[in-house]
Please model this.
Amino acid sequence: MGFLFTSEAVTGGHPDKLADTISDSILDAYLALDPDARVAVETYVTNGLCVVGGEVRAKPDVVVDLAGVARDAIRYIGYDDPRARYPVDDIGMLITVGKQSAEIAQGVDRGDPSKQGAGDQGLMFGYACRDTEVLMPLPIHLSHVLTRGLWDLRRKGTLDYLLPDAKSQVTVEYGDDGRPKRLHTVVVSTQHAQEVDQATIQADVREHLFPLLPAELLDSETRLLVNPTGSFHIGGPKGDTGLTGRKIIVDTYGGWAPHGGGAFSGKDPSKVDRSAAYMARYVAKNIVAAGLADACEIQLAYAIGVAEPVSSGVRAEGWGRDATPNDVLEQAVADVFDLTPHGIIPGLDLCRPIYRDTACLGHFGRDGLPWEATDRVDDLRAAVERAGSASA
Model:
């Protein structure tokens, strides 16, 4: 039986994403000076004000101008444009950042780095499927395609009336076979300069943005909605508050796969909320890329201060064929991947300043991010063959 499924994405100018970007910019600033820094910061933005709070532990000689980093992040997103009504040089800055709890530190740090414990308890999910070339579910992938397209149109000056805050939403109709059949509804809401009329915006978005969608999934009944409220010139923190960690579904799989509940932004890789979620995506993507399944969900769970995950699981699906059995994949994953913090963090090279752009342009389905590599395909195939032989 067919069904509809919808996912959304937002640009870096959305208030919550602006908060994420500021938090991750602060994380990057610390990691650039001290790769072993421990950072857990959150940001709140509202009209005329930016608040940064949290805990940090770094080398004694590391000094970061937190307010300066926050203002630079706000400029990077585009709020140096006075039409956006969040004047970066004039907003108030409230910084309240203390030292990391000694009790957290004693649970994580070890004399032997290979014994490093998880920085928190929690559960994390990773997912991959053959919906798209980047092995992401189609609705969230296309939502990100549209928001990144808006980012490019604004940054390159192609549509110079665009302002930083924008959203997209894509509804995909799936057929009886459970595969994408057509695009049912596409929504784009973009902040704009006040003097631009809606007819111009709608025509420009249809001309420049909608061609990024797969033509074979568009038909005469596909609804294409642009700024359906009729006007969107008040946006960003001028129009709404923003807070780090409120767009976790946008950050992952658009609701198609489960989410453990932990946010990513502002957290250094010792926090498994972030690093283990990246690892779970890496594992799932390599399983699908290896042809061992058409869709794969990984769950990991950790206890604070304990290195090995307290549980790990694989759920694999074949589309019109049998996927590799879950127990065989679980054994192969255990053979190929080190799922401890010491295995994840250096294995994916996570202690470096790579996080600002994940906050504003998406964490998954993008080239160049270490957890998006498919370099363990051959290892997995060999491990599956060994596990299958042992089982036989």
